Amino acid sequence: MTPRSRVYRVAGLTVAGESPSLSFTVADEGNGVLVVSLGGQLDFLSASELAPRLADLQAATCDAVVDDVSGVTFIDSTGLNALVAGAQSIQSRDAAVLVAGASKHVARVFEIVRLGETLRLEPTLEDAVRAARTGREAGG
Amino acid sequence: MPRVRRSASSVEDALARSISRPRGPLLAGALVALVILVAVALGFVWRQYGSAKDEAAQGLRSRAVLAATVFDTYFAGQLQALRAMAAAPSVVSGDRERMASYFARFRPGSGTSFTAGVGWIDLTGHQRATSDPAGPVGISLAGRSYFRETLRTEKPVVGEAIVATRSRRRLVVMGVPTRDERGRINGVLAGGIVLQQSAEDARTNDLGYAGLQVIDRAGQQVTRRNLGRPANTELVERLRRAGEGVLVDTNGLDGASGRVVAFATSTTPGWLAVLDQPTSVAFADARHALVREVLLVCAAAGLLLLLFGWAVWRSRRDVRASRAQVARWAQLTQSLNDAVDAGEVREALIAALTSEHPEGVTLVGLTAPDPSAELSVVVRRGARSPLGTLDEGAAAAISQRVADADAAVAIERRPAVEAGLGGEALRTGSLYGVPLRYRDGRPAGSASVAFGRTQALGDHELSLLRAYAYQAEQSLGRVRRHEEEHDAAVLLQQSLLPDRLPDVSGVGVAAHYRAGALNTRVGGDWYDVVRRPDGVLHLTVGDVAGRGIDAAISMGQLRNAFRAYALEHVSPAAIVDRLARHVPGDDMATMVCATFDPLTRELTYATAGHLPPLLVDRGQRVVTRLSASHRGPLGWTTSGIVRDASAPAPGDATLALYTDGLVEHRDESIDVGIERLAEALLEFTGSSEETADAIVSALAPDPEDDLALLLVRLAEVPDGLELEIPADPYSVRELRRRLHGWLTLRGIDDETQHAAVLALNEACANAIEHAYRETNGAISIQLSHRGDVLRIAVEDHGTWRQPTGDPNRGRGILLMKNLMSTADIRQQPSGTRVVLEQKL
After folding, report:
1. Of the residues B421, B454, B488, the one at which a domain ends
2. Closest chain A residue to B819, measured at CA
């Protein structure tokens, strides 16, 4: 199953890519915080694309990663699993992972599967970035 | 059954001969002959008239001669008497006394013929004795011509007429010389006669003496009271010179023209007897004869002309009759050539026979193609037929009898009686029937004409009847062959079209298809409806150019290709595009493909050279032509790229796909036909089947053209649907979209929608991930929304592996169980079935 198009633009630390129904953008917020913006549907189809990308982030030296899911319209268990797998590999380097901007429906999925501290939900991106910095300072 | 040979050509030849016989020269010749005959007769009559005139003139002349002779004789007698008197002794003696007493015997009134008396004149010219006692004696008569002439000639002389001085009577005096005893002339004895005026009476006229005139020597007209001379002195001169004869068409004595003058000279008195008559009188008899004869000739000529005219009229009537016959023959041949089925052949034959025999009743019975079937008989009364129509049983029995007859022409007298039938009309009449046969000898039926008379037809009519029947046989054979070919093509075509249309809940589909009538060979119209496993409907109507079995085969191939592509592709444009590859460049086909998703009510379509589908919004009473997606016909152009066009399907909608047979009419723009279809679609409100049938019978009642009409009633959002999708992530993603659409249409709230869609997704994802990890499979889904329960059942045909220790596993099941009121997962030997329910 190959995606219809795949365009990577590399500029500094910004990596952008498209996969079926999923947009994926990484931005360095400074202070060791990376923001991964996701958009589209996070289902069986896009999850297989998402997991390796998230794993790639291990190479980047950062203290915290914020998954901005405000653009995600749908997420299912496979999407969730990809997010969890990515988070676990980041956390294995002692970096924190936060999820921000979940819509009502996405938030409900997180709620049901009770991921707790593995993937902490923050209402907005700003909240998440602030919490990440706080956490890093606290941890550091 | 022996074949009875009949020849149509002999009849046609006879007809042609009777028409082409040259009548013009014959007519002219006869007329010329008649004219010559009349001319000769008239010439003869004219000559007769001429001789009659001659005869009349000669008759007149003889009468003139007779008159002259009578005068001669008379005067000769008178002179004789006078000479006798001159020889009397008293006269010879010269004694006046004795003479006077002698003369006294000849006193006027005494019966003497000398009515004016006699007298003796001496040589001195003095009258010395007279028979008139009071007569003047001694008067000198020396100047009188008769006195002088007598002395000069010494012969008896008749003098010219004179008018008596005293009595004013007209007299003629004649003189003879008297001699004494010695024979010397001593005087003249004169005797006078009074000329009586004899009135022209009927008798003289009858004798042909009308106009008798007498002219004396001096040119005086004795017959005139005053002895006047005729005005035409020239004529008198001429007559006198000629002496005797007749002049025709000359001027009369009085100078009037147009006279017949017959004349003769009476020598003794020197008189001319002249019969001077107007031509009209003289030739009256000749003229009467002429008139009589001319009238006779004219009458004879008229009679001949009448006879001739009658003959011409008869011949013209025959020619007209022959022409009418030829026209009927031509009409029959034309109608038979145009006939496309047995019914039309029969109609043509009946029309020809009733027009040929308006006084009869025509029966034509045809055997149905099914050999066991009886004759179907049509009876038609001629315009002037005295017969009533036959009852059906009698007609059938008679037709059957004729059909079975082993004769070129079956002739029956009193057919109804002989057959023991109730056909009252045929109890006294006669019937002439011809059995009809196909070329191979099979019975084809019969054609008969019944008459009220016992003897109705002659040889000519019988051969015509046979010829008509022969022509009809030929056409029947042709039509039957055509029908068989057509039936085969129809059978093939129908075997290639769908037997039944899929039953889709919430969608009423109906098709009306017609293969076309006989004269148009079956067309290549097709229609089809494919319900994909995922519930999407593909509808198509198309038309392969051309007719007959070839078109039917092409149509079958296209339809099979359509069914294959319909399962493969959701997009109608993709289907049309791929079908284009199946039409070779020299063929052509038009088609429309419409796709309807009952879950989402999404309607998309693509057309290739075809008429636009009509989308009817019953609520708004609006009909939309779907013409946004269009390319050229298949096979016509390969370059056409067609894209899906979509149209919103209103709540109560009907989609109509059709071929041009339904909307195309001669002398009319196709737009008018489409408009009429749109109106009909709004008008009819029954089920799709009823509407389709009603529309076809309203718009295309004539079965000549083939047509296809596919009606899809998109009435309501279904409350449930069973479908099947391939077990792949793309299909699941598409299903999520469609399920959202359906739930929205069903009025389900946003949160429940998301829950249900996610739950369904988890069930499907499990099937893909676990059941069909290495194989392609299908997932069956049952949706239902009845009462306040939304129920989704997902079934696969593989085996889910038990969740391993991986904590990520099992999140799907967790989600399902938490999102829905119940989530029942059942492992079965045949597969796994998940039933998700949500109480609303």
Report:
1. B488
2. A112
Q: Which string of DSSP letters, residue by residue, matches B735-764?
A: HHHHHHHHHHHTT--HHHHHHHHHHHHHHH
Strand pairing category for B537-547 and B523-531: antiparallel
Identify the residue with better confidence: A74 or B522: A74
The span from the CA of B604 to the CA of A18, in Å, is: 29
In this structure, are B703 and B801 located in the same domain?
no
Candidates A44, A77, A104; nearest CB to B729: A44
Between the alpha carbon of residue B498 and those of residues A66, B501, B529, B563, B677, the distances in Å are: 59, 7, 8, 11, 24
Confidence of residue A1 (pLDDT cuts 50, 70, 90): very low
- Tell whether A81 is within 8 A of chain B (Cβ): yes
User: Are residues B672 and B738 part of one domain?
Assistant: no
pLDDT of residue B424: 60
Asked whether residue B320 is assigned to any structural domain, the reply reads no
> Which ipTM was obtained for this model?
0.85
Q: Is the pLDDT of residue A11 over 60?
A: no
Domain boundary among B693, B714, B735: B714
Looking at the fold, whether B614 and B465 belong to one and the same domain comes out as no
Cα–Cα distance, B827 to B603 (Å, whole number): 38
Q: Which residues on chain B are in Cβ contact (under 8 Å) with A41?
A: 733
Query: In terms of residue numbers, what domain contains B384?
Result: 339-488
Domains along chain A with CATH numbers: 9-139 (3.30.750.24)
Domain count, chain B: 4
pLDDT tens-digit series, residues A22-37: 788 888 877 788 889 9
Shared domain for B637 and B542, answered yes or no, is yes
Structure tokens at B88: 């009397």
Q: Do A76 and B768 touch (CB under 8 A)?
A: no
Same domain (yes/no): B525, B588: yes
Cβ contacts of B728 on chain A, cutoff 8 Å: 1
- Is B814 within 8 Å of A45 when comparing Cβ atoms? no
Q: What is the DSSP string of B771-803?
A: ITSSS--EEEEEEEEETTEEEEEEE-SS-PPPP
Interface subset of A 21-60, CB within 8 angstroms of B: 21, 41, 43-45
Chain B contact set for A105 (CB, 8 A)? 751, 754, 758
User: Is the same domain home to B402 and B522?
Assistant: no
Q: How does pLDDT run across B205-234, given as a tens digit for each residue? A: 666 677 788 888 888 888 877 788 888 888
CATH number reported for the structural domain that contains residue B615 in this entry = 3.60.40.10
Collect the ranges in chain B with pLDDT lower than 50. 1-8
Q: What is the pLDDT of residues B112-168, one digit of tens each?
A: 788 888 889 988 888 888 887 777 778 888 888 889 888 898 888 888 888 887 778
Is B365 in the same domain as B241?
A: no
